[in-house]
Amino acid sequence: MWTPVLPDGHAPLYERLVSAIDHDMRAGVLSDGERLPPQRELAFRLGVSVGSVTRAYAEAERRGLLSAHVGRGSFVRVQADPLRDVPTRERGMVIAQDRGTVDLRCNTPPPVSLVGSLNAALAELAARGVLEPALQYVQGAGLPAVREAAALWLDRQFGLQVTAGDLVQCNGGQHALALVFSSLCRPGDTVLCESSTFYGARMAAEHFGIAMRGVAMDAEGLSPEALDRAAAETRARLLFTVPTLHNPTSRTMSIQRRKEIAEVARARDLLILEDDAYYSYSGKPPQIARFAPERTIYLASLSKGVCPGFRLAFLVLPQLFPVERMLRGVRALGYCPPALGGLVFSQWVADGRVDAIMADVRREASERFTMAQAALGTAMASPGGPCSPHVWLPLSPLAAEQVAARALRGGVELTPPDASTVSNDADSGLRLCLGAPDDRASLAMALSVVSEALVRREELACEGVV
User: Fold this and answer.
1) Can you list the residues of the chain whose pLDDT is less than 50?
2) How would you label 183-218 residue by residue, b for 16+ Cβ within 10 Å and e otherwise?
3) What is the pLDDT, as a whole number, of residue 318?
4) In the prediction, which pLDDT does 49 show?
5) All structural domains of the chain
């Protein structure tokens, strides 16, 4: 049976497998109508995950390279008719595909108009003659004016009273994660986190040779008892957590749970890196940093609630924290934070525009969340807040792979089911990022495709086909 040779490169595994299918079709290794190996068999032969093969087959079918038939398999199709072999009820999915792929993978704030606010801020900064730092290296923890604005913003929007001297300006939340991991951990160290976690944290840890140990979750998020056991077993010194609208499951810790996590961290001498990226969408519960200020590094970013393009985030460091260690990391990973976006942000804080922008973002997010509720119904887990920029569909691993593959055939890209998984007991399912589509019409189409994929999967399950 056919066993492809995957091309080298940095492209995702599934894309390289699609390239191998296309290459072997053109080279005559695969002939028209030939049946490809079952997904699990090919995954075993290549030593890769079934999810990667499933996604590759789905993408190859979307490109017209393959024809999939439930119960029979996937077959090579050189001359593809987009509607051939597609049941009438599914043609809308193919037509949607022809309109272009809708990407629900990137967790970005819903689009609102920012150009006018940007132009106004630049004009005001120029009139005040304070744009010169944007052309120079910024030394240390960031521009004083930017950190002072951040302290005001954290007070107004997050309810945290900090001083500018407590803050380190970073090049976005991902840079902040990399900065903390690389400054506090050595290769081979263990960082504790939820059993499913933010993919960017996984990527940063892997890059620095750091192991992530997933800790069991319940309906409120991270389990204190499981955290205590994991800390005792690993002797880890750092916990990374997303306690508010957790990514990917959208769960939010209660106040009592936050206090319990703080107590475990204190008893086990854990530092906490609290990523509060989604705080502005929530009911604004008090942060873990309020219950364990002496051991919590608090991360607030503009990327999820204001403007991702600024690449601007702030770390709030505990008192008596060795700041110089963090500043060496700033220099090593980027030398200095960018100034222009920070200066615009400082102007927006001064004139109140940042509050208005965040309100606009929340309104649009709320509208999109209502659309998701209407389209997905009980298939969607209830988030721990009045709305969320991402929603979670609890599904078994196999069902998640099947729904994601079917959605991809309909022109909707979803985050791979195992992208956030850290441990075997992690909740399985699919995350949908509602802010990623350019407009509500595109989101409505995407939600319709996902809903249809869920319904069709249930029908096939009832028929005993899957």
Assistant:
1) 79-98
2) bbbeeebbbbbbbbbbbbbbebbeeeebbbbbbbbe
3) 92
4) 86
5) 13-82 (1.10.10.10), 103-112+355-462 (3.90.1150.10), 115-354 (3.40.640.10)
